[in-house]
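Technical note accompanying the year-one report. For the benefit of new consortium partners, we illustrate the data format agreed upon in the data management plan: each record pairs a sequence with a structure-token string. No post-processing was applied to the example shown here.
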Amino acid sequence: MGTPHFAVPSLNILVENGYDIVAVLTAPDRPAGRGQKIRYSPVKEYALEKGLNILQPTNLKNKDFLAELASLEADLQVVVAFRMLPALVFEMPPKGCINLHGSLLPQYRGAAPINWAVINGETETGVTTFFIEQKIDTGEIIYQEKIPIHPTDNAGDLHDRMMQIGAEVILKTVQGIENGTAPRIPQTLPEGAIKKAPKIYKSTCEINWEQAAEVIYNHIRGLSPYPAAFTTLNNKKLKLFATNIVEEQNGKVLAPGELNTDGKSWLHIGTCDQALAITDLQLESKKRMRIADFLRGYKIESGTIINPPVI
């Protein structure tokens, strides 16, 4: 059970190791892009390539769907980036239903664990497989693998590494369940000590220039490349994808949100302490570009103050 690119390596590794995939569940086809052409999910594209049985239910509690799912007689359900399952589904297979989560549970339970680990400046995260229970991300842990977060990683970098490592942990987990050696470790950390990873909303992406440079730096890379942190320049949304913390030119102190630039190759924005050099950005209605390309086509005066973001 999975939908995005993140889920494909986990399905692939099970196929390559000879497991009988009786069905692949993925999201229904949806129109996408300017032409609103029907687009298949990455998991469906892979399943079609491999000739796998594909199910795309719109209602996981539908009686006909549940009957079809039961008729497959799956020993185990493997969930990677799918959606919340009703008990009628995850209690069906005799070997249980397992999920791959992008954190070291119980830390960063929730919809966006990769983003929040980077936003919060963590230096380490990981992947966890666990048995699904009724309450989200609280089931017994099977295996975990730690993954370092490098100072220059953005959420996309971490996602891509985690996607591959997660597939290996999925294989290890399925093998362990198959041969009866998979552990079942309760999540015991007190609720108050658990960091959460809630869904990312538009308001989450707004940059507060009154914060410290390091906080904003982590915020930007934790939302890059998608959905991207943003600010507002001359009443237009400006997405920021990559920055560096810098000492301001000639010891000049910039106010929070104040711009400084040579108009050719660099653009700095003040915070409550240091400044951030913008290296990769996208202005509303324009394509994403490097800072030098942006400055060639957009005139900015030093001393300009970034507008309050439009929400």
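Partners are asked to follow this layout when depositing records. Residues 8 and 45 are 9 Å apart (CA to CA).
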